[in-house]
Amino acid sequence: MTENKARIAQKSPYAVDVEAGKSYWYCTCGKSAGQPFCDGSHKGSEFAPREFKAEKSETVYFCGCKHSGNGMTCDGSHQKL
């Protein structure tokens, strides 16, 4: 039996300055040592990284708890965990 819930990496968002036109691979499993991005720790599970393509250079608040209703970006769900 495999675990189908992502591990909570942290109960707050990761503020990341992204660059326009660049792709970032968001960790969905919560096990990556390079949060909020994938380092391959999901291998052997049903998790896979998700691509975030920056449309503009800005600060993005990536979800740290892996439970956001917004997908990769924080919606405050960590406050209810």
Q: In words, what does this structure look like?
A:
The chain is mainly β and 81 residues long. It has one domain. Helix content is 0%, strand content 22%. The chain contains no helices and 4 strands. The chain has strands at 14-18, 23-26, 50-53, 58-62. The chain has a two-stranded antiparallel sheet with strand order 1-4. It has a two-stranded antiparallel ribbon with strand order 2-3. The radius of gyration is 12 Å and the shape is globular. The mean pLDDT is 94.
Based on the model shown, name its key terms.
mainly beta, 22% strand, CISD, two-stranded antiparallel ribbon, FeS-contain_CDGSH-typ, 2Fe-2S, 81 residues, globular
Which residue ranges are poorly predicted, with pLDDT under 50 across at least 5 consecutive positions? none
Report the mean per-residue pLDDT as an integer: 94
Order of helices and strands: EEEE
- Spatial strand arrangement across the major sheet: 1-4
In helices, the fraction of residues equals under 10%
Q: Tell the overall outline.
A: globular
Q: Could you tell me the strand content as a percent range?
A: 15-25%
Main beta-sheet annotation: 2 strands, antiparallel
Q: Compute the gyration radius: what is it?
A: 12 Å
N-to-C CA distance: 24 Å
Strand pairing plus helix content: what structural class? mainly beta
Q: How many separate domains?
A: 1
Total DSSP helices: 0
Q: Based on DSSP secondary structure assignment, what is the total number of beta strands?
A: 4
